[in-house]
Each structure stands twice: as structure tokens, then as C-alpha cells.
Amino acid sequence: MADLVWHDFLEIGVEFIDQDHKHMLAIMQGVQGAIIRKDYAECAKLLAKLLVEASEHFQREEAYLDEAKYPGLAEHQKYHAELLVQADNVKKICESTEAGHDIQACFNGMSRFLIDDILKGDVHFKSYLEHEGLIKNADPSLRPFKPIAKA
């Protein structure tokens, strides 16, 4: 199974976003425990909670990015929608009679999506926020966001 551990390098630098990410990771740790115990009802319950939390988080994050005039917002919103579909699919598998390997494989995929949201999705707007001076660049060696010149 995926190793669900919070690391400081996952921080975006916007307190409410980082707190939401930590909270969702804690829920995923609970899901992981439920899968290990083969408690699929608890798995489905926690995944339902994760769906609600993720949806609310995505709305807050997108509103913040809209205020910050993030140019990649529309693409980021699409990515969020895909993450919610993936989480819902895993929840449905947990609610079904299927068990074992299928749930673990889907869970691992969803865990990667959650981490990817932070590492691949949110890193793009983190760079933009740093460039705009809205958050402090935690690592000055990182290349700052460079807007794409319009033709």
C-alpha cells in the first residue's frame, strides 16, 4: 500500500490549504487502516467523508486562486474534478461486494492522485503565488513561475 506520510516539502505556504491537505491525508490514513482490517464499510464511510472534505477544499482553493488571478485556474479545476471522480470510484468499489486486491489497487491509485494533487497540481500555483509575492519561496533554488508570453 501507499506510504501516507506528511513531509514538509508538501507544504504550499497557504495555511488553510496546507491544513486541508493534512486533514485529507489523515482521512486517507484511516481508509488505509480500514482496508488492512478488511472493514469495507468503514472504508466507504471514510471515503464519503473524504469526498465531502475534498470538494469543500477544492472550492476554497479555487476561490483563493481566483482572487490571486491564477492563470491556470480552469485547468486546475478540471484536475480537481478528475480527483473527485477517482475518489468516488474507489468509494463505490468499497461499497460493492468486491474486496481484496481491487480495493487496494484503487486505493493506491487514489493515494497517488492525492499526493499528485499537491506535488504536480498545486506546485504550479505555488510557483505562481511565490512569483506574485503572495507566499514566501521556501526554497530559493526553485525556478519561479514564468508566465507564458501571449502571441
Structure description:
The chain is mainly α. It has a single domain (about 20-130), classed as Hemerythrin-like (Four Helix Bundle (Hemerythrin (Met), subunit A)), CATH 1.20.120. Helices cover about 70% and strands about 0% of the residues. The protein has helices spanning about 15-35, 40-65, 75-95, 100-130. Mean pLDDT is about 80; it is low at about 140-150.
Features:
single chain; 151 residues; mainly alpha; Four Helix Bundle (Hemerythrin (Met), subunit A); 4 helices; elongated; disordered C terminus
Topology:
Layout: H1 15-36, H2 40-67, H3 73-95, H4 101-131
Helix pairs in contact: 1-2, 1-4, 2-3, 3-4
What are the segments in which pLDDT stays under 50 over at least 5 consecutive residues? Answer: 139-151
Largest sheet: none
What is the straight-line distance between the termini? 46 Å
Separate helix tally: 4
Instruction: Determine the mean pLDDT.
Output: 79
Radius of gyration: 17 Å
Order of helices and strands: HHHH
Supply the CATH architecture.
Up-down Bundle
CATH class: Mainly Alpha
Whole-number total of structural domains:
1
- Strand residues, percent: under 5%
User: Helix- and strand-based class?
Assistant: mainly alpha
Tell how many strands the DSSP assignment holds: 0
The fold-level CATH name is Four Helix Bundle (Hemerythrin (Met), subunit A)
Helix proportion range: 55-70%
- Which homologous superfamily in CATH is the superfamily? Hemerythrin-like
Quaternary structure: single chain
Shape: elongated
